[in-house]
Amino acid sequence: MERIELYHGDITEMHVDAIVNAANSSLLGGGGVDGAIHRAAGPKLLDECKKLNGCETGNAKITNAYRLPCRYVIHTVGPVWYGGKNKEEELLASAYRSSLELAVKHELDSIAFPNISTGVYHFPKELAAKIAVKTVREFLKKNDTLEQVYFCVFDEENLEIYQKLIEE
Q: Which among 72, 95, 109, 165 is least surrounded, fewest beta carbons within 10 Å?
């Protein structure tokens, strides 16, 4: 049984151990998923993020979830797309891996990912999804502690892309 599932909806409403925030390097909130998570979690999330001193691209940090229905928020910084010339693919895979490693370190059973870097960072959606699914599958082959990994998609385009990839 594959431990990967697709969820079509709002990541801030997911009842999992951790949701992943597609954050910027400051970790102080922004637009898109990042802004939605900060709004739903409330001001204490920002207070905790201020103490983390940011996060480098491809890495991840963990905080409490406050008013969200999950237990934790894992903040990861995906790369901005510059045409594939600046190790964007490697950095995106690293963002997923770093998040999964934090989930295992904190003994979590379930984690939900948004579509990292595909919004204002302009990473091509199909390429980003291929990297995400491949990276998660490779990680799960080597690690059996995570019971469920969700890809949370908000729009129809990503839903179709992920459905095809997960069925392969």
A: 109
Give the range of the structural domain holding residue 63, as residue numbers without chain letter: 4-167
**CATH label of the domain that carries residue 68:** 3.40.220.10
pLDDT band with cut points at 50, 70 and 90 for residue 2: confident
Helix (H) or strand (E) holding 166: helix 156-167
34 as an active site residue: the answer is: yes
Residue type (1 letter), 32: G
Query: What's 134's DSSP letter?
Result: H
Which residues have a Cβ under 8 Å from the Cβ of 133 and sit 6 or more positions away? Answer: 4, 151, 162, 165, 166
- pTM of the full structure: 0.96
Q: Where are the alpha helices (DSSP H) in 42-124?
A: 43-50, 88-105
